[in-house]
Amino acid sequence: MDGTLGWHSACKPCRRLDDLMTFSEGQATMTRQSVAAGMVAGLVGVAAMTAAEKMEQVFTHRPNSYVPAHTLERLLRLPHKPDADRRGLNWTMHWGQGIVLGAVRGLMAERGLRGPTGSFLFLNMRLLNDQTLENATGVGAPPWTWPVDEQVIDLLHKAIYAYATGMVADRLVAGPPGIPAPRKAWESR
Predict the structure, then answer these.
(1) What percent helix, strand, coil does the chain show, rounded to 5?
(2) Which one, of 8, 20, 40, lies nearest residue 113 by Cα?
(3) Distance of alpha carbon 118 from alpha carbon 112, whole angstroms
(4) Is pLDDT of 183 > 90?
(5) Which of 39, 58, 92, 154 is the most exposed place for a label (fewest CB within 10 A)?
(6) pTM exceeding 0.85
(7) Cβ–Cβ < 8 Å for 102, 49
(8) Is residue 121 predicted with pLDDT exceeding 60?
């Protein structure tokens, strides 16, 4: 798609979308930088989520979750071990998954999926990723079967991750020109 051909070439929004989706060799460096910056953003997002989880656990007395460890255990086809023996695997999956998914948020920022809307879309991707891996391996249960308080806690923590990651990615990665569109301040509209 070059942004000039096709049945919708006269449509300015469609041409703009075509331009965003076009990839050339000159963009390869930018994409690598966006992936790296996204991974840094993912690290910051996981740190923010982990801090929020630890603060929440002080008040709720909720124990640590070893679902990440057991999910990775199944993915790697490792023998089952008790939670106490899986702390390293737990941190590997918890931090690794957040850092790797941050690369996607960096690419989103590069292609114009930025700001709160980009972070909201990324939140859903993070939830989908977690639930797919946890349920495909048989470790987790569908979220609608969880108690409501656990659903709220999981959504809150994943939102903290997604928005912190997005905020950092949007600062580190330059987006396409004109995105977001310049606007006048609320007071001058």
Answers:
(1) 70, 0, 30
(2) 20
(3) 8
(4) no
(5) 58
(6) no
(7) no
(8) yes
| CB within 8 Å of 87: residues ≥ 6 apart | 69
Q: Which residue has the tokens 């987790």?
A: 140
Q: How would you class 97 by CB atoms within 10 Å of its CB: exposed for 0-12, middle for 13-18, buried for 19 or more?
A: buried
pLDDT at 46: 98
What the block records as the tokens of 88 is 């390293």
d(CA 123, CA 118): 9
CB-neighbour burial class of residue 71 (10 A; exposed 0-12, middle 13-18, buried 19+)? buried
Gap between the Cα atoms of 157 and 53, Å rounded:
7
The tens digit of pLDDT for each residue in 132-157 reads 999 999 999 999 999 999 999 999 99
Q: Which amino acid is at 179?
A: I
By residue count, the chain amounts to 189
State how far the alpha carbon of 156 is from the alpha carbons of 43, 57, 99, 149, in Å: 18, 13, 18, 11
Q: What integer is the mean pLDDT of 98-107?
A: 97
Rounded CA-CA distance 109/106 in Å is: 5
